[in-house]
User: Fold this.
Amino acid sequence: MEKIGIVIHGGAGPDSEFIKKHKQEYEEGLRKALDKGYEVLKNKGKAIDAVEAAVNELENNPIFNAGRGSAINAKGEVEMCASIMNGQNLNSGAVAIVKNVRNPVSLAKAVMLNTSHIYLGGEGALNYAKSINIELEPESYFVTEHQYDAYAKKRKEAYASNRHIAMEQIHERSHGTVGAVALDHEGNIAAATSTGGTEFCKEGRIGDSSMIGVGSYADNSTCAVSTTGDGEYLIRGVIAHSVSNVMKYTKADVQEAARKVIFEENKDAEGDMGVIAIDRDCNIAIEFNSARMHRGWKTPKGTGVGIYKD
Assistant:
């Protein structure tokens, strides 16, 4: 049996009435993204293209916080971040605080393949996207009713504070990310992650999803990882690279490594964390310490999607 496989996530964090109400739509969105990525693998495509295809599907789905469904920052704008990494050669690409780009992960891939850089941000990233004819959309495309309502609520809370408390101190935790890891028929692995950021965050905040070693990491000698959760905690723990390092230096398998990073090395972290991972033997890992993590997997051993803990 040929070893190919893909694992995806659509964000980890606290539960909400919106998630409960739209559980069926979330699950259908996850299935469609799985199918998009797995189709690439089934047709002898590369893992790097499979993770891009899966993440593109999630970026195009307005129910997920990436691409079209991105969060709105304190300035009333959308700023997106994404990263991608090839486990075969450690090549990687990333973009931060980009606007108007329909699929930020595809721009990150273009940075990886077509420039001598790894990381582009802001206006420079947008100008590069224009120069290579990456698909762009007007700002209105990215603003969904759900995300606008979330933004309006946080703005009202901020202005209601007559002591001008910093927004970070008074808003309830909310975050979202999408990501994918895959193994192709040549035995190569890849990871990709994309996010629309956090509701009412400061203008210019750079998300963990765009950081190689934090949001995405892939090395054929260990595993491919995509992370989600509270970005600042993921950055402090360099979570994606940590999973790879546990495998490398302790000889743990991919599931043991993911569990150790989340529940042992970061057991005192107060934030939500989730990881998905795959190795070259098509072993997968899905671990999270939050109330829910939107996730899906498709390998020769089976397929499935889930949101809450089993």
Observations:
- The radius of gyration is 18 Å.
- DSSP finds eleven helices and twelve strands in the chain.
- The CA atoms of residues 121 and 162 lie 35 Å apart.
- The longest helix spans residues 23-42.
